[in-house]
Amino acid sequence: MAADNDSASAPSLEDFTRTARDWLEANAEYRSGGSDDKELVWGDGEFSVSVFHSLTFEEEKALLERGKAWIQKKAEHGYHAITAPVKYGGLGYPRSHGRAFSKLEAQFVTPTGHETLSVTVGLIAPTIDLFGTPDQKEQFVGRFMATKDLCCQLFSEPGAGSDLASLGCRAERDGDEWVLNGQKVWSSGAQFSEWGELIARSNADVVKHKGMTAFIIPMNLPGIEIRPIKQMSGGSSFNEVFFNDVRIPDSMRLGPEGEGWKVALTTLGFERDHSGDGGGGGSRVGGSWRQVLATARAMGVTADPVLRQELAKAYTHFRVEGFVNRRAADMRRAGSPPGPEGSLGKLIWTEGMTRVSDLISRILGASLVADTGEWGTFAWGEHVLGAPGYRIAGGSDETQRNIIGERVLGLPGEPRVDKDLAWKDTRR
């Protein structure tokens, strides 16, 4: 979100960088290998390349608490939201200051990121800033950006995944309240979240894209049941969420009635922008280039001409992804709403994770599936098991290609047989 105050009041970049470095040095330790651009020291510190965490409930909650504590510590000085408006707890400084702090922070050991932190800070808060009422903005945006509360998305359903507009969770108006009934699935972090952004079917008599309404709801309301789903990676970050005659006031509606599709697309646009992955300074989700290179060197395969070529391709992909993310981050800090460029970034990211999975499998061989206790080897299994999930999450790869083809390249749209049918008349 863009700053609403004059950036001329900001300190010089040199003064800001010096002050920020002093603060980071007082509150964190330098990475032994420096920033993510520098060579990793093999065998030193934590080695995390997971896409989805393989943790118990208590372990995952503790990880989240560490992430929240770091963001809240930064929030005491506005470092959690350097370019955001002062009214939300930010500093209102130029984008150059935000980039400088991110570069500095990467040199320090900070808590591991978590998707729920990213959802709260990077998806729900800016969506409310765009669609919320003045009271909603005052109540939620600053609070969510500082992770004083956590949020989850309540979008996908068993019969509405990539075709989100087919969702059937009902929201029926009853005076000044809405009554919710239905089910959501794949809701990451729902068991840890105080709030959720819900998209529900409020009108079954119009075409499916037109009959939805968005809400911000407390996750502890009577009638809400959360059931964690065991994932093949070992963790249970995903959840089913059931609504049984859940009542919420109309003041919790986000955006106009019947405009939930527009709200959902905005949130999904933020989700597809991976320019801020990590949720507050943690390590890159799914691993970084320096971890790939360090693994190849430790296995002694960098002289293999075929693997060297694959490493070069992976490095090129990481660099291109970085440039795309930097452009998306600049647009986001300038206050531009998310657009189809988010689909490009998301597609590049998931293709990059697939490329890394294939490359690491060739580098490690049996060490990938046999836990010998060697640092930085078996841990890659969490990447290989988790990477395929993000080819679906936030819109499948096929959906991203459709968006790019239709909205960027101007290609003919996919045939949609239910385009002009009321939702109640569509096949489900």
Looking at this protein, list some descriptive labels.
four-stranded mixed β-sheet, 428 residues, Butyryl-CoA Dehydrogenase, subunit A, domain 3, four-stranded antiparallel β-sheet, 39% helix, 8 strands, alpha+beta, Butyryl-CoA Dehydrogenase, subunit A, domain 2
Overall description:
The protein has 428 residues and is of the alpha+beta class. Among the domains are: 151-258, Butyryl-CoA Dehydrogenase, subunit A, domain 2, CATH 2.40.110.10; 286-408, Butyryl-CoA Dehydrogenase, subunit A, domain 3 (Up-down Bundle). It is built from eleven helices and eight strands. The protein has helices at residues 13-27, 57-75, 95-105, 115-131, 134-145, 260-271, 289-298, 305-333, 341-364, 380-386, 397-408; strands spanning 151-154, 170-174, 177-184, 195-201, 212-218, 224-228, 239-249, 253-254. The longest helix is centred in the C-terminal third of the chain and has 29 residues, at 305-333. The radius of gyration is 22 Å and the shape is globular. The relative contact order is 0.13. The model is unreliable at 275-282 (pLDDT under 50).
Write the topology of this structure.
Layout: H1 13-27, H2 57-75, H3 95-105, H4 115-131, H5 134-145, E1 151-154, E2 170-174, E3 177-184, E4 195-201, E5 212-218, E6 224-228, E7 239-249, E8 253-254, H6 260-271, H7 289-298, H8 305-333, H9 341-364, H10 380-386, H11 397-408
Parallel strand pairs: 1-4
Antiparallel strand pairs: 2-3, 3-7, 4-5, 5-8, 6-7
Helix pairs in contact: 1-3, 4-5, 4-6, 8-9, 9-11
